[in-house]
Each structure stands twice: as C-alpha cells, then as structure tokens.
Specification:
By secondary structure, the protein is α/β, with parallel strands linked by helices. It has 10 helices and 10 strands. The strands form 2 sheets. Strands 3-2-1-4-5-8-9-10 form an 8-stranded mixed sheet, with helices on both faces. A two-stranded antiparallel ribbon has the order 6-7. The structure holds NADP nicotinamide-adenine-dinucleotide phosphate.
Length: about 325
C-alpha cells in the first residue's frame, strides 16, 4: 500500500493567531483532529456540532492538550436548514472574518431517511446543508483576505462499493428509484466535489479558494451504518495493511488544503489522500489529483447542480416561512 501523504512540518507550525476557522462535525474523527491542530497553531476555531455534550467533551479534551486553545462550540444540525441558518447568524454576530470554512461533517450509507426539510438524508446532510451554510458565509469569506473553502468529498465520489458516483437530477431524493445507501453516498460525495469546483469558478478573482478533498480511508465512526465501529477498531492492525489510516493522517489533506501556499493556484481542484479508485494508478492520491470519474470534470454538471441546489433550498425556505 502507498504511504499516506503528509504535510510538511513547516505548514503545521505556521502561526495562525488572529485567524478564524469553522469546522463542521468537529467533535469526532477527522474534524476533531483538524480542530485540535488549528487550535495548536493559535487559530480561533468555531466548531459546528449537532450533539452539544459531545462537542463540549471534545473541546475540553483539546484544551487539556492545548492550554489556551480558542475553541467555540456552536449547535449545527446540517439536516435542518433552520439550524444551519441559526448557526450562521450566531457566527456572524460575533465574528467579522473567516479564513477557512471546512465542510467536514458527513454520514455514510445510512438507512433510508429524510432531513427536517424532506431531503434524502445523505444528499441533504452532506451536500445541501453545507451548500446553504457556504452561501450564508460567502460574504464574510469574501471580506477575509485569502479565505478558503474545503469540501470533504471522498474517493467514493468515483465508485462506492461498485456504485458509480453520478447526480440523478430526475430523482435526487430517491422518491422514484429504489433507495440504496451506497448510491446515495456516492451521489452526495460527487456533489461535494462539484460544489467546490463551481464555487471556484464563481469566486474567481475574489481571492477565495475552494477545493474538495478525499481524506483517505480513515479509522473513524463514519462506518457505523455499515459495520460495528468496535469491529473496525479491533481489526485495525489487519485493515492497516489494506490501507486504513489514523485520523491524524486523515486530517493531513484538509490541513494542506487550508494552509499550503500552493493550493490557491489550484482553486476548484480535488486533493486526494491515498484511496481506492477504479483507476488503480490513482490509489497513491495526489495534492491535487485528477479524478477518474468523468462527471468530476463536467463544468456544465457543476453549474447545474449549483443552480438546482440553490433552487431547492429557496423553495424549502419559502415553504417554511409560509407554514
Ligand atoms: N473516514 C473515512 O474513511 C472517510 C473517507 C472519505 C471521506 N470521508 C469524509 O470525511 C468527513 C468526516 O468523516 P469522519 O470519517 O471523520 O467521520 P465521523 O467521525 O463520523 O465524523 C463525522 C462528523 O459529522 C457529524 N455529523 C453527521 N451528521 C451531522 C449533521 N446532521 N449535522 C452536524 N454534524 C453531523 C458527526 O456528528 P455525530 O458524532 O453527532 O454523528 C461527526 O462528528 C465526512 O464528510 C466523510 O464523508 C471519510
């Protein structure tokens, strides 16, 4: 197996005092490690969590490791547009700059479900919730010099357990086709990649960089709907031989995307840790890397997804206000 790509130590010792970051889903897994590293480098990190107690526990643990860590925990349920709006309002009430937005939270291969606004659960949480959050924070990002938006995608945007990543505009929410958890995950992760691509196009010339990342196959709770987490942890030694990596390694691509001076030269690109691609020559990853999925290179698809996401959200907000 290829060795995980790791950030240059100089990037991880940059002084980030005076910088502010938002990390969604930062109480566990890759997000938690990202929060800790940014705080260690002196940044203020606002962490969006749906479980307040878990968020406070993670923040307390980080403060023990990093005395003086500047971490703020705010409630954020990406499966609710009301909650996304409240999070953005609270953030904007107390912050006037945002150097990095890390759209990290996610769910994978869930049983069929819906968000509070009636969207398919994985598309709604992984893509539409983050899409709305990004829209609400775009002004502050554009007012902050050198701001970056990082969308956590996955190598599964290419193929997830044999299902090719594609966007089905005729049935985004699986109301007509039979629900399949991997097909829905692949669609949501391709949407994350296309979101960054289209953001980059729209934000050209504003100084804001947007990229998508695959963090690697990482030992986190994400697997919970597919296999017991304890089993993954018990078998970690063997799974590592097949490419499983630890959360610290899994956070490297996000940290590189946030901190490397090279990244703004590649706005819209996909940055991949080691992964599992249909084209095995891509398995070593790359910062940046060209996806083997042709849909990932379709500019028209990215535009259409952006417009459709904005339309779906505007319609849902209108319905909510009328109710
Ligand atoms: N682990 C991997 O191998 C892998 C591979 C490719 C891509 N990724 C991507 O990496 C990102 C981070 O995942 P991870 O591996 O670190 O998994 P994780 O430990 O399960 O972290 C995901 C986080 O998202 C949060 N979350 C889920 N639904 C949410 C919602 N509705 N509102 C707010 N937060 C919500 C979770 O909160 P709760 O704890 O409350 O559920 C959790 O803190 C995801 O986008 C995932 O798709 C991971």
């Amino acid at each position: 197996m290829a060795q995980p790509l790791m950030c240059d130590k100089r990037l991880l010792s940059l002084d980030l005092s005076g910088r502010t970051y938002v990390v969604t889903g930062g109480a566990s897994g890759i997000g938690r490690v990202t929060v800790e590293q940014l705080a260690r480098q002196g940044a203020t990190v606002v962490v969006g969590v749906r479980n307040g107690a878990a968020g406070q526990k993670a923040a307390d643990q980080i403060r023990r490791e990093v005395p003086g860590a500047k971490i703020e925990i705010l409630h954020l349920d990406l499966a609710s547009l009301d909650s996304v709006e409240q999070f953005a309002e609270q953030f904007l009430a107390t912050h006037s700059e945002l150097h990095g937005l890390v759209n990290n939270a996610g769910v994978m291969n869930t049983p069929r479900g819906q968000t509070k606004d009636g969207f398919e659960l994985q598309f709604g949480t992984n893509h539409l919730g983050h899409f709305y959050l990004t829209e609400l924070l775009l002004d502050v990002l554009q007012k902050t010099e050198g701001a970056r938006i990082i969308c956590l995608s996955s190598c599964y945007h290419d193929k997830a357990m044999g299902r090719e990543g594609k966007i089905d505009f005729d049935d985004l929410h699986f109301t007509r086709r039979k629900y399949d958890g991997w097909t829905a995950y692949a669609q949501s992760k391709l949407a994350n990649l296309l979101h960054a691509k289209e953001l980059a196009r729209r934000l050209e010339g504003t100084g804001v960089t947007a990229v998508s990342v695959h963090p690697g196959w990482v030992r986190t709770n994400l697997i919970r709907h597919s296999a017991p987490v304890f089993l993954q942890n018990a078998l970690a030694g063997v799974l590592k031989l097949a490419g499983l990596i630890e959360p610290w390694e899994g956070a490297q691509t996000t940290l590189y995307a946030l901190l490397s001076p090279e990244v703004p030269k590649h706005s819209g690109a996909f940055f991949s840790q080691t992964g599992m691609y249909r084209d095995r020559s891509k398995n070593a990853g790359g910062w940046p890397m060209s996806s083997p999925n042709p849909h990932a290179h379709d500019d028209e698809l990215a535009r259409r997804l952006y417009d459709e996401s904005a339309r779906i959200i505007a319609e849902a907000r209108q319905k909510r206000r009328a109710a």
